[in-house]
Design a protein that fits this description.
With about 190 residues, this protein is mainly beta. β7 and β8 form a beta hairpin. This is Glycosyl hydrolases family 2 sugar binding domain-containing protein.
């Protein structure tokens, strides 16, 4: 299957400047459109009370990569990067899941470890909107966000746009993203 690169992604790669929220939303919508067009991944249906969704190769456009020794180990998640181009400066990965319509989300957190910075959207709402930077604490120890208010009963989606500061992903300039979404329902 031949996949064309998005002009929006190319524009973001050309300059490692902070991308606008509107550009991030365009990237988000294009990712969801590709996801639905390709019927990619498996939409997981969650009925149990406690669930963990971690990045792995079941995420759309994600390929598992080796964890750099400097990166924190994220339990129940693997480090991933763009399956289209492992050397890319930008990786856009996503996952769709369905929460039970009979249960209420009590707690939900997102543990994010990214080398170097990211934009994360859940259901079209910004959770993380980093400025371009190379901050060690973003990948060790990583960051945790309360995401309960971003989730809803029924279908949900998470899109992570990860950036490698300083150019393409190489051995000398590693890049990766690992995320673990922990959800507790009533």
């Amino acid at each position: 299957m031949r996949v064309l690169k998005s002009s929006i992604t190319k524009k973001a790669v050309r300059s490692v400047k902070k991308i606008t929220r509107s550009t991030a939303m365009v990237m988000y919508r294009k990712q969801l459109s590709r996801f639905h067009k390709n019927k990619a991944g498996n939409n997981i249906i969650i009925t149990q009370r406690n669930v963990v969704i971690g990045t792995d190769d079941t995420w759309f456009n994600a390929q598992e990569i080796d964890r750099n020794p400097a990166w924190v180990q994220v339990p129940d998640a693997s480090y991933v990067w763009s399956s289209r181009d492992l050397g890319a400066e930008v990786a856009v990965v996503s996952k769709q899941f369905t929460l039970s319509s009979r249960r209420r989300v009590r707690n939900a957190s997102l543990l994010l470890s990214v080398d170097n910075y990211a934009i994360v959207l859940i259901n079209g709402r910004f959770v993380v909107y980093d400025t371009p930077q190379a901050t060690v604490s973003f990948f060790n120890p990583g960051r945790t966000f309360d995401v309960r208010r971003f989730l809803r009963r029924g279908q949900n989606d998470i899109v992570i746009i990860a950036f490698n500061f300083g150019g393409r992903r190489t051995i000398d300039n590693p890049a990766g993203v690992a995320a673990r979404l922990s959800i507790r329902q009533s």
